């Protein structure tokens, strides 16, 4: 009895708690408070607000999902009314809808304190969270309050989604060298279990460890279906009046239900792409779900588990029934296992159900496309043509042809215009290639060591004496050789702007460095700002500024340009071999590339189009030292293999060349020591004059105005070491955006992997034996 009343009392307590459930604090306002605290330098508050923002967003997501799944289950189940009841069926249908709506309202009210639609946020904020910006702020705050391990995890989490973010990369390098930081601290706090398992699976698979990869792929599938359920249930949101003014929206009952439901189904279908996308990538992994079975069938086969191999091959064939290789594999497995036994094994039930539902949705979506013109982009490649209405298919085909024709026409037009413009601007240049060099070097100490002829190419030059030994030393003081403290200031100075990391479209392109080397860089403006804060010698920064202009004038004069050269980007870069000495390094420190076109070595072509920096016309590299091993500069043919000339770096030596297809170049691996150089790119097009350079010009004017030429006075501008620079919208066009994620694995992107996946060799010997 006592127990009974106690539990009643407890129930009441629970009820009361629910009735007065505090509203979940909206995460947008928390995020906002976090950002504001950041600019006040109130690190504890940054941590409190940002952590809570992340938590509340996750809570909201969780509650939404659980309510939707719960209400879906509790109100599902068709009643067995006779078909000829007509409109009464509608009533029972809508009764179920209302039950479900009521269930949702109740559930969300209890869990969140209001309906979840109350928490709608703008797309900009969602983007911040997708880009994992809160971790960018958190990272600084944790660092400031000496929670280094948390800072490392936040930095890593942010970097995973922003692999082009140079400064965060530098921070991570810095953390790696810090005492007390463990490998295991570099955690991705937002990792999706299904993707993580998949990646582990592929890693083992690639290492030919079948026994190890199988559990990961199986687990990945399990997690995939959980994630899929969650992703789909989040689609049941409010109608998005995208493109409509909702005041003018006057669809009738069935049209509006259709509109909304089609939108929801579209969203559910797009879960395929969402689940297949890795953080920091634009494109989903193709055929993600089917590929699990492609890997698995081969892995099971390697383990001689033919039962499972048959099952997985059959499952894969559900998606691609005509896949030749998989059909051959199935024949092979069946033969080994015995026809009888193999015929009893069927494809996986959950995948059958998945495909059935997906096809039903696609059918409805295509119907809506055809009937109401509501666009649907199928995320899957395995959809059979029969699902698409013939009329729609014909219409689409016609549209595609028209679109292709228009694109082609526009393309031709653009090319014509481009050619005209280029002919105009390059006319004189192209005509006199080869003649157009050998101009005066302008400066007394500078001498030409090799011209195009000696360098076995065109528009190439090597000069010595561009700067003195002393100047080299002065410039080297800007590099990380100073000390860890100086380095951290470089790392921490600029990256904090949440909006500053729009990459430059180099995703997936070659990395400017290899995992074997550390890589640090600083631009002229950065150096000047650091100098201004007395974090590096201001004199060195000024010299850096002066030297870049000297090189610009030298290149302009030597190549006899009749128009001025403008800066496109300048960068002081050091590359260090990580170990004391690395035997057998075969990788290039900087892979062969051309500066203003995309090099396709296999095709012997260099294509001048985005995302290459097509506006770059001349390039120069000024070396600051030679006391390292490896690291020679090379020019190659278009094949990126045949080396035509090799240049040994040394202090004061400059390599200059035109940036086009005629000059593919690269750098051999640095095997010992540190190699430092100033890399410069120039353009003849004033529209591409670098914005950072203009800022640097202004800063120089400000710092060294005539009445204040005494250099020593510059550095007394006192700044406390404490203050991390408040986010200056950094405008640097990110040359460094070329970084690719060394850790990431490209699944199935290389043909060799695919070939490998495709199964056992069906050579004649095996066949006859069977
Ligand atoms: C094949 O793998 C499944 C699942 O791992 C296992 O249950 C089964 O015993 C295996 N069969 C053989 C013949 O190894
Ligand atoms: C940079 O050039 C200016 C103008 O030519 C000169 O006055 C100044 O001393 C130079 N600074 C350094 C550090 O070389
Ligand atoms: C140019 O080619 C010749 C002949 O192949 C070679 O001996 C020479 O070293 C090359 N020049 C440079 C600078 O590498």
Automatic annotation (TrEMBL):
<dbReference type="InterPro" id="IPR011990">
    <property type="entry name" value="TPR-like_helical_dom_sf"/>
</dbReference>
<feature type="compositionally biased region" description="Basic and acidic residues">
    <location>
        <begin position="715"/>
        <end position="724"/>
    </location>
</feature>
<feature type="compositionally biased region" description="Polar residues">
    <location>
        <begin position="743"/>
        <end position="752"/>
    </location>
</feature>
<keyword id="KW-0256">Endoplasmic reticulum</keyword>
<keyword id="KW-0802">TPR repeat</keyword>
<dbReference type="GO" id="GO:0019797">
    <property type="term" value="F:procollagen-proline 3-dioxygenase activity"/>
</dbReference>
<keyword id="KW-0223">Dioxygenase</keyword>
<dbReference type="Pfam" id="PF23557">
    <property type="entry name" value="TPR_leprecan"/>
</dbReference>
<dbReference type="InterPro" id="IPR044862">
    <property type="entry name" value="Pro_4_hyd_alph_FE2OG_OXY"/>
</dbReference>
<protein>
    <recommendedName>
        <fullName>procollagen-proline 3-dioxygenase</fullName>
        <ecNumber>1.14.11.7</ecNumber>
    </recommendedName>
</protein>
<dbReference type="GO" id="GO:0005506">
    <property type="term" value="F:iron ion binding"/>
</dbReference>
<feature type="region of interest" description="Disordered">
    <location>
        <begin position="709"/>
        <end position="770"/>
    </location>
</feature>
<dbReference type="GO" id="GO:0005783">
    <property type="term" value="C:endoplasmic reticulum"/>
</dbReference>
<dbReference type="InterPro" id="IPR005123">
    <property type="entry name" value="Oxoglu/Fe-dep_dioxygenase_dom"/>
</dbReference>
<feature type="compositionally biased region" description="Basic and acidic residues">
    <location>
        <begin position="732"/>
        <end position="741"/>
    </location>
</feature>
<keyword id="KW-0677">Repeat</keyword>
<dbReference type="Pfam" id="PF13640">
    <property type="entry name" value="2OG-FeII_Oxy_3"/>
</dbReference>
<feature type="domain" description="Fe2OG dioxygenase">
    <location>
        <begin position="570"/>
        <end position="684"/>
    </location>
</feature>
<dbReference type="InterPro" id="IPR039575">
    <property type="entry name" value="P3H"/>
</dbReference>
<comment type="similarity">
    <text>Belongs to the leprecan family.</text>
</comment>
<keyword id="KW-0408">Iron</keyword>
<keyword id="KW-0560">Oxidoreductase</keyword>
<keyword id="KW-0847">Vitamin C</keyword>
<dbReference type="GO" id="GO:0031418">
    <property type="term" value="F:L-ascorbic acid binding"/>
</dbReference>
<keyword id="KW-0479">Metal-binding</keyword>
<feature type="signal peptide">
    <location>
        <begin position="1"/>
        <end position="21"/>
    </location>
</feature>
<dbReference type="GO" id="GO:0032963">
    <property type="term" value="P:collagen metabolic process"/>
</dbReference>
<keyword id="KW-0732">Signal</keyword>
<dbReference type="InterPro" id="IPR006620">
    <property type="entry name" value="Pro_4_hyd_alph"/>
</dbReference>
<dbReference type="InterPro" id="IPR056585">
    <property type="entry name" value="Leprecan_dom"/>
</dbReference>
<keyword id="KW-0325">Glycoprotein</keyword>
């Amino acid at each position: 009895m006592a127990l009974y009343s106690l539990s009643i009392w407890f129930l009441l307590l629970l009820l009361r708690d629910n009735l007065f459930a505090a509203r979940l604090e909206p995460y947008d306002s928390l995020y906002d408070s976090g950002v504001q605290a950041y600019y006040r330098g109130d690190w504890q508050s940054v941590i409190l607000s940002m952590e809570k923002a992340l938590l509340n967003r996750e809570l909201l997501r969780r509650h939404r999902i659980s309510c939707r799944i719960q209400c879906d289950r509790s109100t599902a189940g068709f009643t067995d009314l006779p078909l000829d009841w007509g409109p009464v069926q509608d009533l029972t249908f809508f009764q179920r809808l209302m039950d479900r709506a009521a269930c949702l309202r109740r559930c969300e009210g209890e869990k969140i304190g209001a309906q979840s639609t109350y928490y709608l946020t703008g797309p900009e904020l969602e983007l911040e969270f997708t880009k994992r910006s809160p971790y960018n702020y958190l990272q600084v705050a944790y660092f400031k309050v000496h929670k280094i391990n948390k800072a490392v995890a936040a930095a890593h989490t942010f970097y995973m989604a922003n692999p082009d973010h140079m400064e965060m990369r530098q921070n991570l390098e810095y953390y790696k060298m810090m005492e007390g930081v463990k490998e295991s601290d570099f955690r991705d706090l937002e990792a999706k279990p299904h993707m993580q398992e998949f990646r582990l699976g592929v890693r083992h698979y690639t290492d030919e460890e079948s026994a190890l990869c199988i559990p990961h792929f199986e687990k990945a599938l399990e997690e995939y279906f959980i994630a899929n359920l969650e992703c789909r249930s989040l689609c049941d949101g409010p109608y998005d009046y995208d493109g409509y003014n909702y005041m003018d929206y006057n669809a009738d009952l069935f049209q509006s239900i259709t509109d909304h439901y089609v939108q929801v189904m579209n969203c559910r279908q797009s879960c395929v792409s969402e689940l297949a996308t890795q953080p920091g990538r634009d494109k989903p992994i193709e055929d993600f779900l089917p590929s699990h079975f492609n890997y698995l069938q081969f892995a099971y086969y390697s383990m001689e588990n033919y039962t499972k191999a048959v099952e997985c091959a059959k499952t894969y064939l559900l998606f691609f029934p005509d896949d030749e290789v998989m059909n051959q594999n199935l024949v092979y497995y069946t033969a080994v296992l015995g026809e009888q036994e193999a015929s009893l094994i069927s494809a996986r039930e959950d995948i059958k159900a998945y495909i059935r539902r997906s096809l039903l949705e696609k059918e409805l979506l295509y119907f809506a496309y055809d009937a109401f013109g509501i666009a649907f982009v199928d995320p899957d490649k395995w959809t059979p043509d029969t699902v698409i209405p013939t009329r729609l298919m014909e219409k689409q085909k016609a549209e595609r042809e028209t679109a292709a024709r228009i694109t082609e026409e526009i393309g031709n037009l653009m090319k014509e215009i481009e050619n005209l413009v280029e002919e105009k601007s390059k006319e004189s240049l192209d005509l006199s290639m080869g003649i157009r060099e050998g101009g005066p070097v302008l400066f007394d100490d500078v001498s030409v060591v090799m011209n195009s002829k000696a360098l076995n190419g065109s528009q190439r030059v090597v000069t010595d004496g561009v700067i003195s030994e002393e100047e080299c030393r002065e410039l080297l003081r800007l590099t990380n050789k100073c000390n860890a403290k100086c380095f951290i200031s470089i790392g921490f100075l600029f990256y904090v702007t949440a909006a500053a990391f729009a990459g430059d479209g180099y995703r997936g392109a070659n990395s400017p460095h290899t995992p074997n080397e550390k890589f640090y860089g600083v631009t002229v403006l950065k150096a000047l700002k650091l100098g201004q804060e007395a974090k590096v010698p201001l004199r060195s920064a000024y010299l850096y500024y002066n030297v870049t202009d000297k090189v610009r004038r030298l290149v302009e004069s030597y190549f006899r340009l009749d128009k001025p050269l403008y800066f496109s980007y300048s960068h002081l870069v050091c590359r260090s071999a990580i170990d004391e000495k690395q035997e057998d390094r075969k990788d290039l420190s900087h892979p062969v590339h051309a500066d203003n076109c995309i090099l396709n070595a296999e095709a012997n072509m260099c294509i001048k189009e985005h995302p290459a920096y097509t506006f770059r016309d001349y390039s120069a590299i000024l070396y600051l030292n030679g006391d390292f091993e490896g690291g020679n500069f090379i020019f190659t043919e278009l094949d990126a293999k045949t080396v035509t000339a090799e240049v040994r770096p040394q202090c004061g030596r400059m390599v200059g060349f035109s940036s086009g297809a005629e000059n593919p170049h690269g750098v051999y691996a640095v095997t010992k020591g540190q190699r430092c150089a100033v890399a410069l790119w120039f353009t003849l097009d004033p529209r591409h004059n670098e914005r950072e350079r203009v800022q640097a010009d202004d800063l120089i004017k400000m710092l060294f105005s005539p009445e204040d030429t005494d250099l020593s006075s510059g550095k007394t501008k006192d700044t406390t070491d404490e203050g991390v620079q408040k986010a200056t919208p950094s405008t640097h066009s990110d040359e460094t955006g070329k970084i690719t994620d060394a850790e990431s694995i490209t699944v199935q992107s290389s043909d060799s992997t695919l070939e490998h996946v495709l199964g056992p060799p069906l050579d004649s010997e095996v066949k006859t034996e069977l």
